[in-house]
Amino acid sequence: MGLLESAAGTAADKADSVAGKDSTIGGLIDDVAGKLGGGAGGVPNGTPYYYAREALNDKLGQPQKLFLKPTAQGSESQSSDENRGSRPMPIEFIHFGKVHGDMNDTFAGKGPPGHGIGCRDALLRETMLLFSFVDAAKHVLETNMQGAIGGAMETVGSLLGSGQKSAAVGPEQFMPLLVKIQTTGDKLNAGSIDYPTLHQAGVDLHQARADFAVLCASAFKPGAGGGAGLPSLPLPGPLGAVGGVGGFIADIPKYLFKAQDTYKAMFQAARAEYEAGIEEACRAFSVAAIRDGREPTFGIWFFEKEAAGAQGTASPEPPKTYADNPLGKAEKAVDDAQDKIEEAQDKAKGAQESLTDWLETSGARTRPGSDALAAAFATLSGGTRWNEPRTDLKNLNKIVPAPALISRAIAEGTGIQPLPGFVDTVVREIAKASVAILERIYTNLLLAAGDGDLRVLTALSTREALSKMIVDLVFKLAGFPPPGDNKKAEGETQLGKVSMGKQQLLNKGAELLRDFLTKHAAHLDVIIDFIVEELSGELQKMRGQAFSKDARTMEIWLGRLPMLLALQVRNTLFPLFNLLLDAFGLGDTVGQTVWNPVRDKIKQATGVVQDVKHTKDNLLEATEQARESGKKMDDAVSQLGDNKFNFLDPANSAKDMKDKVGNVDRARKDGVQDVLDKATGADEDKARSLLAGDQDEPPAGDAPFSNIRVDDSEAIRPEKPDIDRVGKVVLGTEAA
């Protein structure tokens, strides 16, 4: 009996016991679709907890002077604000549920030294991070990787109590939460910000965070069933006699049919374990920026302008004056032209760095957010984390490193516990490589201030990490020693008999696998291509969302980090399962009933080898184009230095210098465009995008805030009535 026949028979037997013999599997799914797809509407209420952290104001807690200015009796100034006898009052800034004390006299202004705008921008970034977390969860639930048989058996299992015992939470139930977050973002994204609005936004975001945790606990609750009830494949030839290895290959469908559950389990494990550490890295970075008075107050990850009044800052030079005569005008024209030259040189240098940052591996340069990004990724490596309150040592918990966490999640998602040792080893190696790939991509995004071609950056990072190890992973996943370790065993054969020892059977299986990979090398290229396409697509989506709002910040990508970890492992591991079935002649047995993206890609492209070669050529051409573009800019800049100003004809001479400056700027812009075109080969796609018509009005909840970020905002000083009305949040006394 074939696999499909066996699986259908198993499902039909279970269906008959529930719905009668006349009910087919398809009919059964239709009958119970309403029960399985919905779940209760609305957003569940979580319980937020608040805990005190470092103050924003060093004056907090110190005695404050009473502001009284002596005036003559009957003077008009007696009723002025400066003579009303008021003290600075304490206020609080809530960021990621942590409460930071401040004073109302350091709140107002359009930026430092006032704290208000820095706090507002920190909450905008928090809005983007939380929105990205929630949107990722919704996206995971929208992903459908189940084949027909897998979906049917999950439906039957749910009815019989072997799967999830209650209706699943659908992706649509995350929309009210996204709308709630967007509403908060819109209140912050205004031309002026007052203390009540800022305080309430901190409260609303933390409530949304608590609601999100409750919703995820329900949406990603693991089912009691697993892959154990699914049929195994019959093994051809002598391979079936090789105990554990052959048995595992026969059991691969048990993993493939649970791809959906496994992906959800990995995502939930990663978000539950790592979101808090990512948030803490962002919070600590934001608070330090506010305390230090850094500017710009929003783009703190990429740029930093030295705070006014900082030690060691030289006083600005007074503006140069020019004589009001022809010679003075000529001198001014020379200086203006020189300023333009220096500006063009700076732009050219910056553009070249942007072009090459994401094509090079060296991390010679850093950005203000480099340490914060390292702290966010450190949480994926393990270590410890405090729960609250920190006064109790039992709240100091160990963080599970990504390899161990992902292995545990896959065992939970498939219901195969424990995973076979060689499968566990491969899973851990893939998880470790996935973290390394993501960290390299995120680091380059930071260095390039979010610019650069994500498809090229992802391709370079992924191929560098996986191309050397993917063949070994295939052998290890099949239970065979990697190439080079396959040595024929001695003393296991019996002369005169047609029999083989176990080790020789293993060698035979490894030889079969090696021959398959040699003949079908395109499979491995397409696997990597598929990984790159999925990952770069997700990164590009988030960048487009941020850039469309003029809100360039790392939080938009960090909010996708738990999902991208699960995505990377899924997109590496499960195609390898499919490849093994193909290698041992079992791929056609499974057919179209399981998720097999690589096979789909191979079918779509008859010349897959040429496609892969074209992709590689694009990368090489992009690197070469970057060098060529840099040379063009250097040549254009060098011509500026050769220019000799003609004092007898200052107007034409200045115009000539201005034209040469324009040449530099054009070389810079053309260079950026040339490299991107070479890297992606996307000229036609770009043209189609430019010719696209107007889009419909975006739906509510589609972005962290509705409109382009307001950069020129001003904070209004809070006074006693507002401060009293807002009050203070109650600090928690138990672990959050």
Architecture overview:
Residues 678-688, 709-725 have a biased composition (Basic and acidic residues). Keywords: Coiled coil. Residues 327-361 form a coiled coil. Residues 1-26, 69-89, 678-725 are annotated as: Disordered. The strands form 3 sheets. Strands 1-3-2 form a 3-stranded mixed sheet. A two-stranded parallel ribbon has the order 4-7. The N terminus is likely disordered. Helices cover 58% and strands 3% of the residues. The relative contact order is 0.13. The protein is built from 25 helices and 7 strands. By secondary structure, the chain is mostly helical. It is globular and about 90 Å long.
The Cα radius of gyration reads: 31 Å
Q: How many DSSP helices?
A: 25
Q: What would you call the shape?
A: globular
Through-space gap between termini: 54 Å
Give me the side-by-side strand order of the main sheet.
1-3-2
| Percentage of residues in DSSP E strands | under 5%
Determine the fraction of residues in helical runs and give it as a percent range: 55-70%
List segments where confidence is low: pLDDT < 50 over at least 5 consecutive residues.
1-41, 75-85, 147-167, 224-244, 307-316, 354-364, 486-502, 605-613, 679-695
**Could you tell me the mean pLDDT?**
73
- Characterize the biggest β-sheet: 3 strands, mixed
Which class do the helix and strand fractions yield? mainly alpha
Task: Report the count of strand segments.
Answer: 7
